[in-house]
Amino acid sequence: MDESSIINTYKRYAGNYDKIFGRIFEQGRKEVVERMACHNGDRILEVGIGTGLALNYYPFFTQVFGIDISPHMLAVARRNIRQAGLKNICLAIMDAQRICFPDNFFQKVSAMYVATVVPDPRLMMDEIKRVCIPDGDIFILNHFSNTHFLPSLIEAMLSPLQKFLGFRPRFSLHRFIEDNELDIVDSMPVNLCGYWTLIHARNHKP
Ligand SMILES: C[S@@+](CC[C@H](N)C(=O)[O-])C[C@H]1O[C@@H](n2cnc3c(N)ncnc32)[C@H](O)[C@@H]1O
């Protein structure tokens, strides 16, 4: 996965993204925002916000910043925000691996269905930890490699198509947690057959 293939892939998806990936990923998005237990004045960052399908779930008293590398996905997000009349959202084209916000700026940061898309998930996580306050909440929602025979065979077969699909079908949960030294608060299976995982981590800073 590289920047230009991501932008091209999501240019292709943008117009129909909500129809294809709206319902199917909805439970996970709802769970993330519910688990955030937002407080008045919370500043929240949604990394790889796409078309903004989680935005309706945030309470109006939170300030939500959404970043994405795809101008086409953000154009749909802007339309969705306008149509829903949301006033507490701010969007920007930005690379998750180089986040242009100061250190310790957000109480809560989420990345939903993004970790398998960004070229370097570790860089993204370093940036997420940097902009999140100490002991703040980090929510990662993603598909991780399945250990059962059939799903893992399908993932292996899809792997060579990752640039076309726009995500990495194989992605180890164990390695992701270890590489990023995540302090897990809890994790739960979500969506269809529990094939996706929601991770809630505490942002421990040295
Ligand atoms: C599968 S979509 C998920 C969108 C949304 N979070 C959702 O719940 O449907 C992945 C998103 O990550 C974005 N993305 C991929 N690489 C990125 C990067 N390096 N920086 C910011 N956004 C990125 C894509 O443009 C796309 O909108």
Keywords:
single chain; 206 residues; alpha/beta; Rossmann fold; seven-stranded mixed sheet; 7 strands; 36% helix; 24% strand; globular; binds S-adenosylmethionine
Account of the protein in words:
The protein contains eight helices and seven strands, in the order αααββαββαβαααββ. It is an alpha/beta fold and 206 residues long. It has a single domain, classed as Rossmann fold (3-Layer(aba) Sandwich). A seven-stranded mixed sheet has the order 3-2-1-4-5-7-6. It is globular and about 45 Å long. The chain starts with a helix and ends with a strand. The model has no long low-confidence stretch (mean pLDDT 93). Bound molecules: S-adenosylmethionine (SAM). S-adenosylmethionine binds next to α1 and β2.
Count of separate structural domains = 1
Instruction: List bound small molecules.
Output: S-adenosylmethionine
**What is the N-to-C order of secondary-structure elements (H for helix, E for strand)?**
HHHEEHEEHEHHHEE
User: Which residues sit in consecutive blocks of at least 5 with pLDDT less than 50?
Assistant: none
Task: Describe the secondary structure blueprint for this structure.
Layout: H1 3-14, H2 17-21, H3 26-36, E1 43-47, E2 63-68, H4 71-84, E3 89-93, E4 106-112, H5 121-131, E5 132-143, H6 149-158, H7 162-165, H8 173-179, E6 183-190, E7 196-202
Parallel strand pairs: 1-2, 1-4, 2-3, 4-5
Antiparallel strand pairs: 5-7, 6-7
Helix pairs in contact: 1-4
Bound molecules: S-adenosylmethionine.
S-adenosylmethionine binds next to α1 and β2.
Summarize the structure.
With 206 residues, the chain is α/β, with parallel strands linked by helices. The protein has helices at residues 3-14, 17-21, 26-36, 71-84, 121-131, 149-158, 162-165, 173-179; strands spanning 43-47, 63-68, 89-93, 106-112, 132-143, 183-190, 196-202. The longest helix has 14 residues, at 71-84.
